[in-house]
Design brief:
Elements: H1 5-50, H2 56-160, H3 169-174, H4 207-219, E1 223-232, E2 238-248, E3 254-255, H5 257-267, H6 270-291, E4 296-300, H7 303-307, H8 309-321, E5 329-334, H9 335-340, H10 343-354, E6 358-362, H11 371-377, E7 379-385, H12 386-389, H13 394-397, H14 402-410, E8 415-419, H15 424-432, E9 437-438, E10 447-448, E11 469-475, E12 478-486, H16 498-507
Length: 510
């Protein structure tokens, strides 16, 4: 039976008290016996002196001898009694030691049984893990074989295609649209309704004409957001979108970013463009998060905006007001921007990182990175062109082999994204490099965003000469002056085949 700690303390106190009383009684009895022995010896000497008429010296010697004898007798008797007590205590101690040994043996047996169970459970868990790892490896091998097979078939189909023939404008109008023949590889209904890409203006413009077109587009809010998905590899599930900016001139011809960014920076208009793009991106992100909480959007920010105190203050106030979206809103900078930033830009990036915003690096020209420094600045994504990753020359030109770059960045919490992927063969090679995300025309080209009210008329095609619809968007309960301009036409899947692909290649990229 187990005894509680309180009971043990009480028993220990009682035992101490009893032992104290016993010691006191022994001391008193010893003193009493000594007094009695002295009295007996003195009485004996007195009797011999008075009755037997022995001299006082002889009587004292006899009394002293009697006292000595009694003392020796008492010591011997006490020694024998103590020996008996010690023997009983030793016997009790032996019995306690035997009980303790039995208890220790019982605990050892129980501990051995527990260790056996733990070893058995660990072995069973290890066997299960090994079986699961084997199945995963088999699935990975099957996926790679499937990707290789798909790439081989695509190469065969590509080599079997007839050469492109010149098609005049009349025939091009009569042929069906390329977007109607594409297979639905990525369903836009999961997130937003996207419209087919409008043709980009290829007419040569002078710098003054481009500046006039840019200024007019910014003043009249002819700014469109195109979305291009980033997918997981090899599952090809949409995980992020990159917002690509396009401007439209008076004739609704689209200006690509590479055509107007430099002109806008020189004219001081890039800040207004970045503010408008951030506003649109936040509007788009709020609509995306309604259906999918795991989605995110990448928004490009120029170095001029980062270094301009007035413009950055406006952006910071806006981002502070939408701080709840920071985990899903990624700000993207060029590699050259991060290499040449000064103290002001560094302080501004730190302010954004302090509010929970993450950064991405694009326009990567080489693979020379400092992962620790980038991670300290808040960089969580690096987008590298697939051709640069797979270029054999980079093995000697960079500090690390491209196949080890993903693992190196992953140690510092940075994800590697391969962009500009245009063929299945590149996907197969990137899987060997452990690349987790991909982006490119193979999965889907950038698509313009359709306004919120376009869902009701998704089956109606707007004529080419129709004006784009303007839709106001409300953020945080207030209606902003910015409007989303887009054409209400059905969403087109990302890939194209057959005659439509032939016409698209002849007509030029969309």
């Amino acid at each position: 039976m187990m005894i509680g700690s309180g009971d043990r303390v009480g028993a220990r106190g009682v035992t101490t008290c009893v032992e104290g009383h016993e010691r006191q009684m022994i001391r008193i009895s010893t003193i009493f016996i000594a007094i009695c022995m002295v009295l007996v010896a003195a009485s004996l000497g007195l009797i011999l002196y008075s009755v037997a008429h022995i001299s006082g010296t002889e009587s004292a010697i006899v009394a002293l001898a009697a006292l000595t004898f009694m003392i020796l007798y008492n010591a011997v008797s006490m020694r024998l009694r103590d020996r008996t007590d010690v023997g009983s205590q030793i016997a009790d101690l032996s019995r306690g030691t035997a009980d303790l040994a039995r208890q220790v043996a019982e605990f050892g047996r129980r501990l051995s049984a527990i260790e056996g169970r733990v070893v058995s459970a660990n072995s069973m868990g290890s066997d299960r893990i090994q079986s699961v790892v084997g199945e995963i490896n088999e699935l990975g091998a099957l996926v790679k074989q499937l990707a290789v097979s798909v790439a081989t078939h695509e190469d065969l189909l590509t080599s079997a295609k007839p050469p492109a023939l010149p098609v005049d404008s009349e025939l091009r109008k009569e042929l069906p649209s390329a977007d109607n023949d594409k297979p639905a590889a990525i369903t836009a209904a999961e997130t937003l309704t996207l419209a087919p890409a409008a043709p980009v203006s290829t007419a040569a413009r002078s710098q003054s004409q481009t500046l006039a077109a840019v200024r007019s587009a910014v003043d009249e809010n002819r700014l469109d957001i195109y979305l291009q998905p980033m997918v997981t590899l090899p599952q090809r599930k949409v995980r992020y979108y990159e917002a690509v900016t396009r401007l439209r001139d008076e004739k609704d011809q689209v200006l690509a970013a590479e055509d107007f960014i430099a002109v806008a920076e020189n004219a001081g208009l890039i800040g207004r463009i970045d503010n408008a793009v951030m506003l649109r991106c936040v509007q788009v992100l709020r609509r995306l998060l309604v259906r999918n909480k795991d989605i995110g959007i990448f928004c490009n920010v120029s170095a001029a905006t980062l270094g301009n105190p007035a413009t950055f203050a406006q952006c910071l106030d806006f981002l502070e007001a939408n701080r709840a979206l920071a985990p899903s809103f990624v700000l993207e900078f060029k590699q050259a921007t991060l290499r040449t930033i000064g103290p002001t830009e560094t302080e501004n990036m730190a302010a954004l990182a302090k509010r929970g915003y993450r950064f991405s690096v694009d326009h990567v020209a080489d693979l020379r990175f400092e992962p620790r420094e980038l991670a300290d600045r808040g960089v969580r994504f690096i987008k590298v062109p697939a051709a640069l990753l797979l270029d054999p020359k980079q093995t000697s030109a960079s500090d690390i082999h491209p196949s080890d770059l993903s693992d190196l960045l992953g140690r510092f919490g940075i994800d590697l994204i391969a962009e500009r992927i245009e063929g299945e063969r590149a996907v197969v090679d990137l899987l060997d490099y452990d690349v987790r995300f991909g982006q490119g025309f193979l999965f889907a080209p950038p698509r313009p965003l359709r306004p919120e009210g376009a869902a009701a008329s998704s089956n109606v095609t707007t004529p080419a000469d129709a004006k784009p619809q303007e839709t106001s968007v409300t953020i945080n309960g207030a209606v902003n002056g910015a409007k989303i301009n887009a054409t209400e036409v059905p969403a087109g899947p990302p890939r194209m085949t057959g005659a439509a692909a032939l016409v698209r290649r002849v007509a030029g990229p969309a």
